Amino acid sequence: MNLQLVKATIEFKPVISGLMQFYMYDFSEYTKQDVGPNGLFGTYLYLDDYWIEENRFPYIIKLDDQLIGFVFVKEIEGEEKKYFSMAEFFILRKYRRREFGNRMAKGVFDLHRGNWEVYQIEANKPAQSFWRLVISDYTKGQFTERIEASRLIQEFNNDFARQAD
User: Fold this and answer.
1) Which of 20, 37, 86, 153 is the most exposed, having the fewest neighbouring CB atoms within 10 Å of its CB?
2) pLDDT 10s digits, 104-153
3) Of 121, 86, 108, 92, nearest in space to 18 by CA
C-alpha cells in the first residue's frame, strides 16, 4: 500500500469541500452542529484562504489512488511567537485505526519545522488520545500540554529533527 501526503492544488478544493461534509458530520458529535435546510453542513469558512494565503497549507491524503483524507496546516505569527497549527486533520472512518493518521500526522510535522500547537476541543476525548499518542511518540515525550478556552493544546518544537536528518 502506498500512503501519500500530497500538497493539494486548487483543483482539489471542491474535493476537499466534499470531504469537509464528512469531517463536519463526525465533528458534530462534539459541537452539536446541525445540517441546514439543504441537508448539508455549512461551508468551511476558511477554505478559499488555503489557496490564497501563503501561511496556509492544504494537503490531501491518498492510499494508492484513493482519497482518504485531508490536512490543513496554518502558520501563525503571534506577538510572542511564531508557530504551526494543525488547523484540520481528517481521515475517513474506514481508514482509521490502521496507523494512517499517525504516519500522516508525523509526515506533516516533518514538512513544517519549528514550533507547533495542536489543539482539540475539550469534549473530543478520542482526538485528545490520538494527538497525545502521536505527539508523545514523535517528540519522544518532549511536549507540553495546557488547557485554554475549553481546548486542550499540545506544544512542541520539532527543530530537533533537523539535527537527526
Assistant:
1) 37
2) 999 999 999 999 999 999 889 989 999 999 999 999 999 999 998 889 99
3) 92
Distance of CA 73 to the CA centre of its chain: 6
Buried b (16+ CB within 10 A) or exposed e, 2-34: ebebeebeeebeeebeebbbebbebbeeeeeee
Give, in order, the Cα–Cα distances in Å from 106 to each of 10, 59, 131, 163. Answer: 24, 13, 11, 16
Q: Report the predicted TM-score, pTM, of the whole model to 2 decimal places.
A: 0.89
At 55-105, the pLDDT tens digits run: 999 999 999 989 999 999 999 998 888 999 999 999 998 988 888 988 999
Quick one: pLDDT band at residue 161, thresholds 50, 70, 90?
low
Is residue 69 within 8 Å of 61, Cβ to Cβ?
yes
| 3-class SS of residue 142 | coil
Q: What is the rounded CA–CA span in Å between residue 53 and residue 137?
A: 31
124: phi then psi, degrees, rounded to nearest 5 = -90, 75
